[in-house]
Amino acid sequence: DIVMTQGALPNPVPSGESASITCQSSKSLLHSNGKTYLNWYLQRPGQSPQLLIYWMSTRASGVSDRFSGSGSGTDFTLKISSVEAEDVGVYYCQQFLEYPNTFGAGTKLELK
Amino acid sequence: EVQLVESGGGLVQPGRSLKLSCAASGFTFSNYYMAWVRQAPKKGLEWVATISTSGSRTYYPDSVKGRFTISRDNAKSSLYLQMNSLKSEDTATYYCARAPSWYFDFWGPGTMVTVSS
Known about the structure:
A: mainly beta; six-stranded antiparallel beta sheet; four-stranded antiparallel beta sheet; about 0% helix; B: mainly beta
């Protein structure tokens, strides 16, 4: 199985500052079709997860442009520019290259 | 508006069975792969099962393979998860999710399953 490893944030993050969350996969997520099958989700307290970024860098519908995704085949970053109160929660990366789909353990963002 | 609403959760004894349902609305259900994802209390997300549009193809992780069965009724816009031989480690909130491609773009609010004697 592909293992997803997420980095921690230096919490709490001051409001208005940027934050970067890292995720590393044990195998390249670059498909032969050129797409990288890495997704990002945010789970706000008491809510179900919501999709933020798919295919490493494509923002989901309705997601603020303060969120951006980047990376290579195995190392990925979710950047949040100008953190706001609504960004608080746990962020998960997920690989969708192969079954079983696997998630990272999550990275918690707290606001100062 | 896309809506996914899970039901069927509850308290069940180890070794028993339970069937979860997910009612979908606001989109053409038969056009989408669907999935179940679970989250144990205070833990992260774990993918549980995926089913193709027609239901002919299903996928499971080893942790539930042979015990769980995902199915769908496109006429009723409903997704199901039959869970047999339940174990304490199956205790979790179970989410129904839509998979338009290689990601989950909408999730239901979840239904809680507690496996305990």
